[in-house]
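hey m, so remember when u said the C-alpha coordinates were messed up on ur end? i reran from scratch. heres the input so u can diff it against urs
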Amino acid sequence: MTIQHSPFSRAVAWISVLLILVAAVHAARPSLREIYDARRWFDLRQAVRTQRAPVFYRGAVAYAFAEDKTAERLLTRAIQDSPRSWEAGEARSLLIFLYVRQGRYRAALSVIDEALKFDPKSDPQDFRSMVAGLAQVPDLLIERRAYSRVQGKIEDGNLFVPLTINDKTVHWILDTGLNVSGVVSESEAKALGLTVVHSNMQLMDANGGQQMMNVATLPTLEMGNIRLHNVGMTVVPASAPPMNWRPAGERGILGLPAIMQLGTLRWMSDGMVEAAFRTKRRGEPNLCFDGLNPLTIVVVEGRTLDFLFDTGNGGGTQLWRKFGEAFPDLLRDKGSKDTKTVREIGGATEREVITLPELHLVLGGFDTLLKPARVFDKPVGNDYYYGLAGMDLMMQARQVTIDFSAMHVELKN
Protein backbone atom coordinates (compact mmCIF):
# COMPACT_ATOMS: atom_id res chain seq x y z
CA MET A 1 0.00 0.00 0.00
CA THR A 2 1.35 3.40 -0.95
CA ILE A 3 1.06 6.21 1.57
CA GLN A 4 0.52 9.63 0.09
CA HIS A 5 2.21 12.56 1.88
CA SER A 6 0.59 15.94 1.62
CA PRO A 7 2.66 19.03 0.72
CA PHE A 8 2.05 20.25 4.26
CA SER A 9 3.52 17.11 5.85
CA ARG A 10 6.57 17.31 3.58
CA ALA A 11 7.09 20.96 4.56
CA VAL A 12 6.91 20.05 8.24
CA ALA A 13 9.49 17.31 7.67
CA TRP A 14 11.88 19.71 5.92
CA ILE A 15 11.45 22.27 8.68
CA SER A 16 12.27 19.57 11.26
CA VAL A 17 15.45 18.64 9.38
CA LEU A 18 16.40 22.30 9.11
CA LEU A 19 15.91 22.84 12.84
CA ILE A 20 18.07 19.81 13.61
CA LEU A 21 20.83 21.17 11.36
CA VAL A 22 20.62 24.64 12.91
CA ALA A 23 20.78 23.10 16.40
CA ALA A 24 23.86 21.10 15.39
CA VAL A 25 25.59 24.20 14.03
CA HIS A 26 24.88 26.13 17.22
CA ALA A 27 26.09 23.23 19.35
CA ALA A 28 29.40 23.20 17.42
CA ARG A 29 29.82 26.99 17.56
CA PRO A 30 31.51 28.26 20.73
CA SER A 31 29.51 30.70 22.82
CA LEU A 32 30.58 34.30 23.35
CA ARG A 33 31.48 33.38 26.93
CA GLU A 34 33.72 30.54 25.74
CA ILE A 35 35.50 32.78 23.26
CA TYR A 36 35.88 35.52 25.88
CA ASP A 37 37.23 33.13 28.52
CA ALA A 38 39.79 31.84 26.01
CA ARG A 39 40.80 35.48 25.33
CA ARG A 40 40.44 35.01 21.60
CA TRP A 41 39.84 38.68 20.88
CA PHE A 42 39.98 38.57 17.09
CA ASP A 43 37.43 35.75 17.08
CA LEU A 44 35.25 37.59 19.61
CA ARG A 45 35.27 40.69 17.43
CA GLN A 46 34.03 38.67 14.49
CA ALA A 47 31.39 36.88 16.58
CA VAL A 48 30.02 40.15 17.99
CA ARG A 49 29.77 41.60 14.49
CA THR A 50 27.75 38.65 13.17
CA GLN A 51 25.11 38.38 15.89
CA ARG A 52 23.08 40.49 18.28
CA ALA A 53 25.53 40.45 21.17
CA PRO A 54 24.87 41.59 24.76
CA VAL A 55 26.19 44.99 25.74
CA PHE A 56 29.04 43.55 27.83
CA TYR A 57 30.62 41.68 24.92
CA ARG A 58 30.31 44.69 22.65
CA GLY A 59 32.04 46.76 25.32
CA ALA A 60 34.76 44.13 25.73
CA VAL A 61 35.49 44.14 22.00
CA ALA A 62 35.55 47.95 21.96
CA TYR A 63 38.11 47.85 24.76
CA ALA A 64 40.28 45.24 23.05
CA PHE A 65 40.44 47.27 19.84
CA ALA A 66 41.05 50.67 21.49
CA GLU A 67 37.64 52.20 20.82
CA ASP A 68 37.94 53.89 24.18
CA LYS A 69 34.84 56.09 24.30
CA THR A 70 32.58 53.28 23.12
CA ALA A 71 34.19 50.86 25.56
CA GLU A 72 33.73 53.16 28.54
CA ARG A 73 30.07 53.77 27.69
CA LEU A 74 29.14 50.13 27.10
CA LEU A 75 31.10 48.71 30.02
CA THR A 76 29.60 51.30 32.38
CA ARG A 77 26.15 50.35 31.10
CA ALA A 78 26.87 46.63 31.67
CA ILE A 79 27.72 47.41 35.30
CA GLN A 80 24.62 49.53 35.80
CA ASP A 81 22.36 46.88 34.28
CA SER A 82 23.36 44.21 36.80
CA PRO A 83 25.95 45.39 39.37
CA ARG A 84 26.47 41.99 41.02
CA SER A 85 26.63 39.86 37.87
CA TRP A 86 29.64 38.11 36.36
CA GLU A 87 29.43 40.53 33.45
CA ALA A 88 29.64 43.50 35.81
CA GLY A 89 32.75 42.07 37.48
CA GLU A 90 34.45 41.57 34.13
CA ALA A 91 33.33 45.02 32.96
CA ARG A 92 34.95 46.59 36.03
CA SER A 93 38.22 44.78 35.25
CA LEU A 94 38.19 46.06 31.68
CA LEU A 95 37.40 49.60 32.85
CA ILE A 96 40.37 49.43 35.22
CA PHE A 97 42.62 48.37 32.36
CA LEU A 98 41.16 51.11 30.15
CA TYR A 99 41.92 53.83 32.70
CA VAL A 100 45.45 52.52 33.33
CA ARG A 101 46.06 52.43 29.59
CA GLN A 102 44.94 56.05 29.39
CA GLY A 103 47.14 57.13 32.31
CA ARG A 104 44.02 57.85 34.44
CA TYR A 105 45.23 56.04 37.54
CA ARG A 106 42.85 57.76 39.96
CA ALA A 107 39.83 56.62 37.97
CA ALA A 108 41.30 53.12 37.84
CA LEU A 109 41.79 53.10 41.61
CA SER A 110 38.17 54.15 42.15
CA VAL A 111 36.90 51.21 40.06
CA ILE A 112 39.26 48.80 41.85
CA ASP A 113 37.83 49.86 45.21
CA GLU A 114 34.31 49.47 43.88
CA ALA A 115 35.15 45.97 42.60
CA LEU A 116 36.62 44.97 45.98
CA LYS A 117 33.34 45.86 47.69
CA PHE A 118 31.54 43.27 45.56
CA ASP A 119 34.36 40.71 45.59
CA PRO A 120 37.17 41.11 48.16
CA LYS A 121 39.16 38.40 46.33
CA SER A 122 39.12 40.19 42.98
CA ASP A 123 42.70 41.53 43.39
CA PRO A 124 44.82 38.37 43.87
CA GLN A 125 48.10 39.95 42.68
CA ASP A 126 47.63 43.14 44.67
CA PHE A 127 47.23 45.21 41.51
CA ARG A 128 45.69 47.87 43.72
CA SER A 129 49.01 48.72 45.39
CA MET A 130 50.61 49.54 42.04
CA VAL A 131 47.66 51.63 40.85
CA ALA A 132 47.41 53.38 44.21
CA GLY A 133 51.04 54.42 43.92
CA LEU A 134 50.54 55.82 40.43
CA ALA A 135 47.25 57.46 41.49
CA GLN A 136 49.41 60.06 43.25
CA VAL A 137 50.09 61.38 39.74
CA PRO A 138 47.51 63.60 37.98
CA ASP A 139 45.92 62.28 34.79
CA LEU A 140 48.18 61.96 31.76
CA LEU A 141 47.47 64.84 29.37
CA ILE A 142 48.55 65.65 25.84
CA GLU A 143 49.07 69.33 25.13
CA ARG A 144 50.31 69.05 21.58
CA ARG A 145 50.50 66.25 19.03
CA ALA A 146 51.96 67.22 15.66
CA TYR A 147 54.04 65.37 13.12
CA SER A 148 57.48 64.64 14.53
CA ARG A 149 60.65 63.18 13.08
CA VAL A 150 63.59 62.49 15.40
CA GLN A 151 66.79 60.52 15.12
CA GLY A 152 66.82 57.63 17.53
CA LYS A 153 68.91 54.48 17.54
CA ILE A 154 68.48 50.72 17.65
CA GLU A 155 70.98 49.18 20.03
CA ASP A 156 71.12 45.94 22.04
CA GLY A 157 67.77 44.94 20.57
CA ASN A 158 65.99 48.09 21.80
CA LEU A 159 64.65 51.25 20.17
CA PHE A 160 65.92 54.42 21.88
CA VAL A 161 64.32 57.82 21.16
CA PRO A 162 65.41 61.33 22.20
CA LEU A 163 63.12 62.95 24.78
CA THR A 164 63.25 66.31 26.53
CA ILE A 165 62.49 66.34 30.26
CA ASN A 166 63.06 69.41 32.43
CA ASP A 167 65.13 70.95 29.61
CA LYS A 168 67.43 67.92 29.57
CA THR A 169 67.72 65.44 26.71
CA VAL A 170 67.63 61.72 27.40
CA HIS A 171 67.42 58.67 25.13
CA TRP A 172 64.94 56.18 26.49
CA ILE A 173 63.58 52.85 25.27
CA LEU A 174 60.09 52.68 23.71
CA ASP A 175 58.49 49.55 25.16
CA THR A 176 54.99 48.46 24.13
CA GLY A 177 55.31 45.53 26.52
CA LEU A 178 55.49 47.87 29.53
CA ASN A 179 51.92 48.48 30.67
CA VAL A 180 52.59 51.51 32.87
CA SER A 181 53.56 54.96 31.55
CA GLY A 182 57.25 54.48 32.22
CA VAL A 183 60.12 53.25 34.34
CA VAL A 184 63.19 55.25 35.35
CA SER A 185 66.19 54.41 37.52
CA GLU A 186 66.70 56.20 40.83
CA SER A 187 69.92 57.81 39.57
CA GLU A 188 68.25 59.06 36.37
CA ALA A 189 65.30 60.46 38.32
CA LYS A 190 67.70 62.36 40.56
CA ALA A 191 69.70 63.73 37.61
CA LEU A 192 66.45 64.99 36.03
CA GLY A 193 65.37 66.70 39.25
CA LEU A 194 62.31 64.51 39.73
CA THR A 195 60.64 64.21 43.10
CA VAL A 196 60.45 60.54 44.08
CA VAL A 197 57.54 59.50 46.30
CA HIS A 198 58.03 56.31 48.29
CA SER A 199 55.36 53.73 47.59
CA ASN A 200 54.70 50.07 48.35
CA MET A 201 54.56 49.04 44.69
CA GLN A 202 55.62 45.83 43.04
CA LEU A 203 56.04 45.17 39.32
CA MET A 204 55.96 41.62 37.89
CA ASP A 205 57.67 40.87 34.58
CA ALA A 206 56.97 38.21 31.95
CA ASN A 207 59.78 36.06 33.36
CA GLY A 208 58.09 35.69 36.74
CA GLY A 209 60.45 38.22 38.36
CA GLN A 210 59.41 41.02 40.69
CA GLN A 211 60.75 44.48 41.40
CA MET A 212 59.87 46.95 44.17
CA MET A 213 59.25 50.48 42.96
CA ASN A 214 58.55 54.05 43.95
CA VAL A 215 56.80 56.80 41.97
CA ALA A 216 57.79 60.02 40.24
CA THR A 217 56.04 62.41 37.83
CA LEU A 218 57.36 63.89 34.62
CA PRO A 219 55.59 67.29 34.61
CA THR A 220 56.40 67.67 30.91
CA LEU A 221 57.80 65.27 28.33
CA GLU A 222 58.57 66.22 24.74
CA MET A 223 59.43 64.20 21.67
CA GLY A 224 59.80 66.43 18.65
CA ASN A 225 56.54 68.37 18.28
CA ILE A 226 54.68 66.23 20.80
CA ARG A 227 54.27 67.38 24.39
CA LEU A 228 52.78 65.34 27.24
CA HIS A 229 52.10 66.31 30.83
CA ASN A 230 51.84 64.30 34.05
CA VAL A 231 53.60 61.17 32.87
CA GLY A 232 53.59 58.84 35.86
CA MET A 233 56.87 56.94 36.23
CA THR A 234 57.76 53.98 38.37
CA VAL A 235 61.21 54.34 39.91
CA VAL A 236 63.46 51.29 40.27
CA PRO A 237 66.95 50.77 41.71
CA ALA A 238 69.88 51.51 39.40
CA SER A 239 70.80 47.82 39.73
CA ALA A 240 67.61 46.66 37.94
CA PRO A 241 67.97 45.48 34.31
CA PRO A 242 68.22 47.08 31.83
CA MET A 243 69.20 50.18 33.81
CA ASN A 244 72.33 48.56 35.23
CA TRP A 245 74.05 48.24 31.86
CA ARG A 246 73.00 51.57 30.30
CA PRO A 247 74.88 54.87 30.65
CA ALA A 248 73.40 57.96 32.29
CA GLY A 249 70.75 59.52 30.07
CA GLU A 250 69.58 56.09 28.86
CA ARG A 251 68.22 54.66 32.09
CA GLY A 252 64.54 55.06 31.37
CA ILE A 253 61.75 53.30 29.51
CA LEU A 254 58.59 54.82 28.05
CA GLY A 255 55.63 52.44 28.35
CA LEU A 256 52.41 51.82 26.49
CA PRO A 257 50.11 54.51 28.03
CA ALA A 258 52.58 57.21 26.94
CA ILE A 259 53.41 55.60 23.58
CA MET A 260 49.73 55.40 22.63
CA GLN A 261 49.47 59.19 22.95
CA LEU A 262 51.64 59.42 19.84
CA GLY A 263 48.73 58.06 17.79
CA THR A 264 51.00 56.62 15.10
CA LEU A 265 54.60 55.51 15.31
CA ARG A 266 57.13 54.45 12.69
CA TRP A 267 60.79 53.64 12.90
CA MET A 268 63.38 52.81 10.27
CA SER A 269 66.25 50.37 10.46
CA ASP A 270 68.66 53.33 10.83
CA GLY A 271 66.85 54.51 13.99
CA MET A 272 64.91 57.37 12.41
CA VAL A 273 61.57 57.70 14.22
CA GLU A 274 58.35 59.37 13.04
CA ALA A 275 55.20 59.94 15.08
CA ALA A 276 51.78 61.58 14.85
CA PHE A 277 51.57 61.19 11.07
CA ARG A 278 48.49 60.48 9.00
CA THR A 279 47.99 57.00 7.62
CA LYS A 280 45.85 55.53 4.90
CA ARG A 281 42.77 53.64 5.98
CA ARG A 282 43.76 50.03 6.59
CA GLY A 283 41.88 46.75 6.51
CA GLU A 284 41.15 44.47 9.43
CA PRO A 285 43.08 45.10 12.67
CA ASN A 286 45.99 42.80 13.48
CA LEU A 287 46.64 44.37 16.88
CA CYS A 288 44.46 44.24 20.00
CA PHE A 289 44.63 44.35 23.79
CA ASP A 290 44.22 41.52 26.24
CA GLY A 291 44.08 43.27 29.59
CA LEU A 292 47.06 45.61 29.38
CA ASN A 293 48.98 43.43 26.92
CA PRO A 294 49.16 44.35 23.22
CA LEU A 295 48.68 41.27 21.05
CA THR A 296 49.34 40.79 17.38
CA ILE A 297 48.75 38.02 14.85
CA VAL A 298 51.75 35.91 13.87
CA VAL A 299 51.45 33.28 11.15
CA VAL A 300 53.40 30.02 11.46
CA GLU A 301 52.94 27.21 8.93
CA GLY A 302 49.65 28.76 7.82
CA ARG A 303 48.23 29.03 11.33
CA THR A 304 47.33 32.38 12.87
CA LEU A 305 48.64 32.69 16.43
CA ASP A 306 48.27 35.38 19.10
CA PHE A 307 51.64 36.77 20.23
CA LEU A 308 52.47 39.49 22.74
CA PHE A 309 53.78 42.49 20.77
CA ASP A 310 56.81 43.73 22.70
CA THR A 311 59.16 46.40 21.33
CA GLY A 312 61.06 46.50 24.62
CA ASN A 313 62.17 42.89 24.93
CA GLY A 314 65.83 43.18 24.00
CA GLY A 315 66.26 39.49 24.79
CA GLY A 316 64.34 38.59 21.67
CA THR A 317 61.32 36.59 20.59
CA GLN A 318 60.07 33.79 22.83
CA LEU A 319 57.84 30.81 22.07
CA TRP A 320 55.69 29.73 25.01
CA ARG A 321 54.07 26.54 26.24
CA LYS A 322 50.99 26.94 24.04
CA PHE A 323 53.22 26.97 20.96
CA GLY A 324 54.76 23.67 22.01
CA GLU A 325 51.32 22.16 22.52
CA ALA A 326 50.24 23.36 19.05
CA PHE A 327 53.33 21.96 17.27
CA PRO A 328 54.32 18.80 19.16
CA ASP A 329 55.69 17.05 16.06
CA LEU A 330 57.96 19.99 15.27
CA LEU A 331 59.44 19.97 18.78
CA ARG A 332 59.82 16.20 18.78
CA ASP A 333 61.50 16.01 15.37
CA LYS A 334 63.68 19.13 15.43
CA GLY A 335 63.89 20.31 19.05
CA SER A 336 66.72 19.81 21.53
CA LYS A 337 66.85 20.57 25.26
CA ASP A 338 68.89 23.58 26.32
CA THR A 339 68.97 26.48 28.79
CA LYS A 340 68.62 30.21 28.22
CA THR A 341 69.22 33.18 30.53
CA VAL A 342 66.21 35.50 30.53
CA ARG A 343 66.75 39.08 31.68
CA GLU A 344 63.80 41.22 32.70
CA ILE A 345 63.33 44.16 35.01
CA GLY A 346 62.85 41.69 37.87
CA GLY A 347 66.31 40.19 37.30
CA ALA A 348 68.04 37.45 35.35
CA THR A 349 67.04 33.78 35.54
CA GLU A 350 68.26 30.61 33.86
CA ARG A 351 65.37 28.76 32.18
CA GLU A 352 65.09 25.38 30.52
CA VAL A 353 64.07 25.58 26.86
CA ILE A 354 63.57 23.43 23.79
CA THR A 355 65.59 24.89 20.94
CA LEU A 356 64.60 24.64 17.28
CA PRO A 357 67.28 25.39 14.65
CA GLU A 358 65.05 27.98 12.98
CA LEU A 359 61.44 28.98 12.48
CA HIS A 360 59.72 31.11 9.82
CA LEU A 361 57.12 33.57 11.14
CA VAL A 362 55.02 36.21 9.38
CA LEU A 363 54.66 39.37 11.48
CA GLY A 364 52.79 42.43 10.23
CA GLY A 365 52.64 40.91 6.74
CA PHE A 366 56.42 40.45 6.63
CA ASP A 367 58.36 37.16 6.47
CA THR A 368 60.86 36.84 9.31
CA LEU A 369 63.26 34.13 10.42
CA LEU A 370 63.85 33.24 14.05
CA LYS A 371 67.19 31.45 14.34
CA PRO A 372 67.39 29.71 16.74
CA ALA A 373 63.82 29.52 18.05
CA ARG A 374 63.41 28.75 21.75
CA VAL A 375 60.31 27.32 23.39
CA PHE A 376 59.94 28.23 27.08
CA ASP A 377 57.78 26.69 29.76
CA LYS A 378 56.14 28.59 32.60
CA PRO A 379 56.71 30.79 34.55
CA VAL A 380 57.89 32.44 31.33
CA GLY A 381 54.76 33.49 29.46
CA ASN A 382 51.22 32.24 30.07
CA ASP A 383 48.69 29.69 28.81
CA TYR A 384 46.83 32.10 26.49
CA TYR A 385 49.44 33.33 24.00
CA TYR A 386 51.77 31.36 21.77
CA GLY A 387 54.71 33.59 22.49
CA LEU A 388 56.25 37.03 22.48
CA ALA A 389 57.23 38.84 19.27
CA GLY A 390 60.34 40.87 20.03
CA MET A 391 62.57 43.40 18.32
CA ASP A 392 64.75 40.68 16.76
CA LEU A 393 61.89 40.01 14.33
CA MET A 394 61.06 43.69 13.78
CA MET A 395 64.69 44.59 13.07
CA GLN A 396 64.58 42.34 10.00
CA ALA A 397 62.32 44.88 8.28
CA ARG A 398 63.41 48.25 6.91
CA GLN A 399 60.52 49.98 8.64
CA VAL A 400 57.85 49.20 11.24
CA THR A 401 54.59 51.17 11.45
CA ILE A 402 52.10 51.08 14.32
CA ASP A 403 48.73 52.77 13.99
CA PHE A 404 46.90 52.77 17.33
CA SER A 405 43.69 54.20 15.87
CA ALA A 406 43.41 51.42 13.27
CA MET A 407 45.02 48.88 15.65
CA HIS A 408 47.36 47.77 12.90
CA VAL A 409 51.08 46.97 12.70
CA GLU A 410 52.96 46.65 9.44
CA LEU A 411 56.53 45.62 8.66
CA LYS A 412 58.03 46.14 5.23
CA ASN A 413 61.24 46.67 3.27
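this time it looks ok to me. The longest helix spans residues 7-28. if urs says something different then somethings off w ur setup not the seq
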